[in-house]
User: Which sequence fits this backbone?
């Protein structure tokens, strides 16, 4: 490069500035404010563990009590984790199967691109609308309940179809399976087809090839997709709010509610705890693979 | 179908078809239901066919919400996010072809932003602007602080929040582009005496053009639909998806489906425009390539 060309650091600078101002500093402030104090009117600079202690207040006593039970905070975390695990398992299975179909069964590149586009287009449309669009299908008088009653499988409409954990997981699968498909498909496209032939020539059955060749070589995609889905789901409050009928508590929703009540320090403390949980999950997953190599 | 397909093909093809139905089915139902007659409700069966709910939406909007202002705000914000995402990703993408100080760290930060729970980002930006506001009100000279309310707003905090979400996608697409880019094209241009700017303008950009359109598509559509990161960082005036989210439990007529159909229509229009642009650019590339006599590079 001649001296007329803009130096690389200058080209990257605008992007870096955006992330410093709107990502790094906000995160540091969140960490800082999580140690601040507050009263009904304002937040007060301080260094106190109050917010963290109050987040889990009474949890230990209740756990070891004569009739042990979970405190609200732990219950909320457990609900969030349960929903995340269900959404993760289903999107992983579906995403893997669809990526496998696109990568190994569709033989023409044009058809591949076309089918890929068919999967992607909904991702570019509004998430809220995609959630609302389940109402006419799953509602008490929705299509599914009507159909089930028509064939006399049920006498009463099923209440748990909408505004329930089931609906939340369904919406997550609906919205985020793409996040699994893309990285897994990407990994699968890099698998040398000769390996599959070699496995077959050596007498491996279809399942054996899948278990011993395809899955190990798709691991980077599986890990990246899993990180996407788990982090999005664990921090979610919009989908859980809309599809849970504002009745299900999640960590994200708890933070959102506290922000609404202007209780910033406890909200920040919960955000830090959530972040630590998510980082732990990511750390566990990345132990399996070096992401940087896979891009 | 050709002969010799393994049985797994048919199972997976069936699964794929069901998945596509699962993806598009619900969307199709709300489009259908939005064209109900005036007596229609939130579920099937359809009560006649009309454009009643669209004209109601056009004339009255939604109860308690100025939906058209929100519509315009979201559209402007989306356009701005799109332009900035394309420009900043392109620049940074060019930078990553060389080495620069802190490139690994910056990459790490960008990926972190992508997988950071959105509520945490939103909370952080909200706090940041609150602290800025408090600082201005406390320390700024009286003349400046007098009319001051908040720095938070659509084109400050919300714009930043959107960029933390769209830029990672933009940068990753740039990486994918330059992984496949043959630097010899550019070197040839430079050998023929092109300045860096000329090489970029006449060689690099035409080659990567279609993918850059793709970045723009991500920029607009992700912003147009963003809720989680915007929620605590938006100030007084809400974006359209935030208004919509607030209305999901209160609106009990198909007017909400009409609005859903409309916003989905906007998304589909943008997607179609982007895809057509990509196709046209690709075709132009092929034509240009065909017109050039083949010579070893």
Assistant:
């Amino acid at each position: 490069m001649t001296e007329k060309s803009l130096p690389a650091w200058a080209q990257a600078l605008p992007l870096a500035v955006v992330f410093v101002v709107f990502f790094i500093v906000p995160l540091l402030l969140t960490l800082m404010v999580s140690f601040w104090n507050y009263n009904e009117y304002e937040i007060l600079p301080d260094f106190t563990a109050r917010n963290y202690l109050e987040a889990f207040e009474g949890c230990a006593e209740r756990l070891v009590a004569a009739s042990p039970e979970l405190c609200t905070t732990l219950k909320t975390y457990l609900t969030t984790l349960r929903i995340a695990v269900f959404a993760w398992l289903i999107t992983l299975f579906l995403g893997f199967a669809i990526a496998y179909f696109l990568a190994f069964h569709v033989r023409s590149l044009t058809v591949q691109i076309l089918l890929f586009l068919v999967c992607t287009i909904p991702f570019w449309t509004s998430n809220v609308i995609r959630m609302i669009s389940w109402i006419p299908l799953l509602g008490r008088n929705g299509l599914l309940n009507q159909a089930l009653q028509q064939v006399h499988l049920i006498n009463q409409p099923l209440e748990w179809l909408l505004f329930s954990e089931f609906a939340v997981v369904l919406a997550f699968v609906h919205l985020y399976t793409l996040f699994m498909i893309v990285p897994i498909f990407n990994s699968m496209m890099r698998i040398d087809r000769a390996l599959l032939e070699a496995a077959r020539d050596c007498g491996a059955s279809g399942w054996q090839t899948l278990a011993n060749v395809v899955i190990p070589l798709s691991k980077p995609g599986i890990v990246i997709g899993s990180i996407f889905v788990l982090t999005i789901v664990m921090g979610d409050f919009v989908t859980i709010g809309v599809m849970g009928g504002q009745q299900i508590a999640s960590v994200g929703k708890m933070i959102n509610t506290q922000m609404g009540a202007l209780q910033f320090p406890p909200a920040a403390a919960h955000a830090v705890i959530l972040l630590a949980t998510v980082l732990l999950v990511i750390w566990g997953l990345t132990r399996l693979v070096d992401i940087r190599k896979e891009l | 179908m050709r002969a010799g397909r393994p049985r797994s093909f048919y199972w997976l093809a069936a699964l794929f078809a069901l998945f596509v139905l699962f993806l598009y089915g619900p969307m199709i139902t709300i489009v259908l239901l939005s064209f109900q007659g005036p007596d229609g409700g939130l579920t099937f069966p359809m009560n006649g066919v009309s454009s009643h709910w669209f004209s109601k939406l056009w004339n009255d909007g939604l109860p308690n919400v100025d939906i058209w202002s929100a519509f315009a705000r979201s559209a402007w914000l989306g356009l701005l996010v799109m332009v900035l995402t394309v420009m900043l990703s392109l620049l940074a993408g060019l930078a990553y072809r060389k080495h620069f100080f802190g490139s690994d760290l910056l990459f790490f930060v960008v990926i972190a932003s992508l997988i950071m729970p959105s509520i945490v980002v939103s909370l952080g930006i909200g706090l940041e602007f609150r602290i800025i506001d408090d600082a201005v009100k406390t320390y700024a000279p009286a003349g400046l602080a007098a009319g001051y309310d908040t720095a938070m707003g659509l084109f400050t905090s919300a714009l930043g929040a959107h960029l933390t979400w769209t830029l990672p996608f933009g940068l990753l697409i740039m990486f994918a582009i330059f992984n496949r880019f043959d630097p010899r094209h550019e070197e040839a241009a430079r050998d023929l005496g092109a300045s860096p700017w000329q090489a970029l303008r006449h060689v690099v950009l035409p080659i990567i053009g279609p993918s850059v359109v793709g970045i723009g598509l991500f920029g607009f559509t992700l912003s147009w639909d963003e809720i989680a990161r915007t929620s605590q960082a938006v100030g007084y005036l809400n974006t359209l998806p935030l208004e919509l989210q607030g209305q999901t439990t209160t609106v009990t007529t198909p007017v909400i489906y009409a609005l859903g159909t409309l916003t989905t229509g906007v998304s589909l229009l943008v997607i179609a425009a982007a895809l057509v642009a990509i196709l046209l650019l690709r075709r132009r590339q092929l034509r240009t390539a065909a017109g050039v006599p083949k010579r070893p590079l």
User: Anything to note?
Assistant: Residues 91 and 144 of chain B are 36 Å apart (CA to CA).
